[in-house]
Amino acid sequence: MNSKSYYKYKFGYINIDQENVYLTSTGNWSEIKVLGEKVFGKSSKKIGKVISIYFLLAILLLMTIASFFFNEKIPYAVGTLAVGIAGVHRLKKYFDTETGQRFFIPKNKIIDIVWENDFMTLHFNTLENELDKIVLRNIEGDIEQLKQELKATNS
To answer: Rounded to an integer, what is the distance from CA 19 to the centroid of its chain?
Structure first.
């Protein structure tokens, strides 16, 4: 087993070394220096960015509706809406890694690992020794190697 490995998932990267499992946005090992251990109930997910994207979509929808009623140009309104939705979708995909959680879990605090289809659920104790869990979706890379690394942790 390697001493360090990483895997991409929907909202960032899973970095693993001998002692901890880290959730990062870039997969860069220098990023782990600033991470703290997971605190119960606190999400480091940047909800503000997600809300901003949907707020932008709502404004675009209102502008499209207004242009339809004031100009009665259906093709223009539909075209604006289609381009806007595509743009917001791309923006959301771009910010996916920026909205992911960032923290680490000591391997000795991992209680259980559940694999289902394309996602993994980690059950663990937080900094305050409260039971918590996180679901990691769309994991890329050598899944069997990841399972082996985490299985060794959970034995």
So the answer is: 22
| pLDDT beneath 50, residues of the chain | 1, 44-45
Q: What is the DSSP string of the chain?
A: --S-EEEEETTEEEEE-SSEEEEESS--GGGGGG--B--TT-----HHHHHHHHHHHHHHHHHHHHHHHHH--HHHHHHHHHHHHHHHHHHHHHHTGGGS--EEEEGGGEEEEEEETTEEEEEEE-TTS-EEEEEEES--S-HHHHHHHHHHHH-
pLDDT, residue 44, reads: 46
* 123 backbone dihedrals φ, ψ, rounded to 5°: -105, 130
Torsion sign, CA atoms 57, 62, 63, 65:
positive
Q: pTM for the complete prediction?
A: 0.65
One-letter amino acid identity for 68? F
